[in-house]
Design goal:
Layout: E1 8-13, H1 18-30, E2 33-38, H2 43-52, E3 60-63, H3 70-84, E4 90-98, H4 111-119, E5 125-133
Parallel strand pairs: 1-2, 1-4, 2-3, 4-5
Helix pairs in contact: 3-4
């Protein structure tokens, strides 16, 4: 029988928008160890803004290369985390914009959908979607 442990929580963000802020707030509520995978250019600015908002106080930040496929980089980062502690579950929290009309979803970042499709088959990995609804 598996032993329940607190998961290592990973939040990949490309830019700091409301969806990312919601994902970070949720991530901090479920895990003691939070790692933010920064996919954008300005990791320092995002880090300062998150701390000013009271989010990601205890998070580790990893800056990823913007010129390499972000999905592959997230997978590689998750492999590194799992290598350090293979028995611990990794929870990937994805902030996703949910528009009022489904066809408008094409205008928003496809990264959460691409990540989700790759991560659902990984052992020891849990995918959590935190929707940000634009109609409210």
């Amino acid at each position: 029988m598996p032993v329940a442990t607190t998961p290592h929580v990973v939040v990949p963000i490309r830019e700091l928008d409301r969806a990312a802020a919601g994902a970070l707030a949720f991530a901090e509520s479920i895990g003691a160890a939070v790692t933010v995978l920064q996919l954008g250019r300005d990791a320092g600015g995002a880090r300062r803004l998150l701390r000013r908002l009271g989010l990601a106080r205890h998070a580790d930040f990893i800056q990823l290369n913007e010129h390499v496929d972000p999905v592959d980089q997230v997978i590689e980062a998750l492999d590194d985390i799992r290598r350090d502690d293979p028995r611990r579950t990794v929870a990937v929290v994805l902030g996703e914009v949910v528009p009022r009309w489904p066809w408008l979803g094409l205008l928003h970042d496809p990264l959460p959908r691409r990540l989700k499709s790759r991560l659902l088959r990984r052992p020891g990995t849990v995918v959590i979607e935190v929707p940000y609804r634009l109609d409210s």
